[in-house]
Amino acid sequence: MAELYHAVAQAIRQDELCAVVTVLSGDEIGRKLLVRRERKVEGSSSAVAAAGSLGHTALDQAALARAAEAMEARRTARISLPVEEQEWDLLIDVHAPQERLVIVGAVHIAIPLVSFARELGLYTVVIDARPIFATQDRFGHVDELIRSWPDEALQEMKLNESSYVVTLTHDEKLDTPALICALNSPVGYIGALGSKRTHAKRVAALQEAGVSDQQISRIHAPIGLDLGGRSPGEIALAIMAEIVQVRNRSKEAGR
Amino acid sequence: MKEILAEIDNWQQAGKRVALATVVQVYGSAPRPLGAKLAVSEDGAMVGSVSGGCVESATVQEALEALEAGAPRLVSYGIADETAWEVGLACGGTIEVFIEPLDW
Fold it and tell me: Which of A54, A66, A51, A65 is nearest to A8 (CA)?
C-alpha cells in the first residue's frame, strides 16, 4: 500500500519528469502505472514502466508508449486506448519538473518580478554577488538568494527546459558570462534587460566570445512584452508576461 | 501536484486517510486544467482545487463517500443553463473529476 504514491511523490519532489497512467472506468478502475525516464549511457533517455500495472501486460505496453509521448509533450491527456478488443479509458497524468525563474541581478525590478513569478507557481532564484543588493530585507520573499558570481552559480544549477533565465544587472561584466552559461543550456527562456544600443554591444561581446548568431537569437531583448510601462513593477510585469507567452507557445507547439 | 504533497504528508502522518480528486476532462471554459488536483482528508479538510471554488464542496462530499466505499469513482459536474448554477459552474463549462482513495 502507498508504495506507488510514494514513488510518485519522490519523483515530483526531485523535479523528475514522470507520468501516472490511471484506468478511469470499467473493471480495472483505479489501477495505475508509473512511468519514469531511465537514463542511458549516451545521455539519452527512454521511458520505462517503473511501478504498478493496469492489469494486463499488453495494456501496460500500449499505455507506456502513449505515456512516453505525453511526457515528451509535457501534457496530461485523457485517452481511449484499444487493446485486446476493449476500449480503455485512461488518464495519462504528466508531472513535469517545477518551473524555475533564475534572476541575475538583485536590482529593484527583481523584487516585484519575484512576487509575480511566485504568484504563478514558479520557483524563484535571485543571484547577485554584491552584498548591498542581495539582502534578506529586499528579498525575503524569494525561494533562493545566492550571493555569488552569476556564471559560477548558473554552472552549478541543473538548468533545464523548465528553467527561465533573465539578466537584469545592466553590467556587461556580470550579464555576459551569465548569458553564455544560459545559452549553453536548454533553458526555455532567456531575456536580457537593456536598450537596443546596450543589446547591440552585448551581441558584439557574445560574438567575440564565439557564440553563434543562432544561439544569440534565443535571447529576448529588449526584454518583456511592450506594455509601455517604465516603473519597476510595470517592467517586471512585462517580463513575466513574456515568459508566460513563450512558455505557453512552446507547450502549444509540443501538442 | 507538488504544492499539495506537504499537506498530504501531514495528514498521513497523523494517521488520517486521504482521497485524491483529479480533473480528467474539461469541456468548454473551466477554471482549472486537466490534471488539477484536490486532496481531501477523512475529516473533510482540503488542499488544492479542481475548479474556481464552485464544485469543491460537492467534490469533498464525493471524496468522503469514496473513502467510505474504499473505491474510486468518476463524477461529472456542470452544463445545462439551469443546473449550471445549481452545481455551481457559473462559467457554463463541464468537468469530469476522478475521485479515489489514496491507498496506492
Answer: A51
d(CA B26, CA A219): 35
Give the residue from A254, A209, A232 showing the smallest Cα distance to A103. Answer: A232
Strand partners, A167: A104, A192
Q: Which residues of B touch A25 (CB under 8 A)?
A: 74
Give the whole-angstrom CA distance, residue A45 versus residue A91.
Answer: 23
Contact list in B for residue A91 (CB cut-off 8 A) is 22, 24, 35, 98
Measuring CA to CA, which residue among B88, B40, B46 is closest to residue B64? B40
The DSSP string of B27-39 is ESS-SS-TT-EEE
Q: Using one digit for the tens of pLDDT, what is the confidence trace for B24-83?
A: 998 877 778 899 999 999 999 999 999 877 789 999 999 999 999 999 999 998 754 455
A180 within 8 A of A155, measured Cβ to Cβ:
no
Q: Provide ipTM, 2 decimals.
A: 0.89
